[in-house]
Amino acid sequence: MDELEPVFSALAGVQAACADKRERAERRAGAVRAHARDQAADIVASARVEADAERARAAAHVRDRDEQAVAERMREAAAAAEEVRRRSAARMPEMVARVAGLVRSLADEPS
Length: 111
Fold this sequence. Notes:
Largest sheet: none
Order of helices and strands: H
Number of strands: 0
Distance between the termini: 150 Å
Number of helices: 1
């Protein structure tokens, strides 16, 4: 075993250097993982903010579309009501004459 002592002595320095490099690599890997974890958390937070903003935009779009549809229905209803008023006004003289005729005929009937 004594004949291997110089080889082991020479390897001791290499082993120490390797252990030192391994430790530095492990510390660096830990730092890289921590940085990647922080970046991932930032990306997730940013995505959540963007998702909230997109939901708000989508809700506003739906609300605007619904308001436009309601406004269109109100215009249609107002036009239909105006048409009913116009036709009623056009028929009013005829209806008044008819009612007046019925009342006169009732008045002319013997009791």
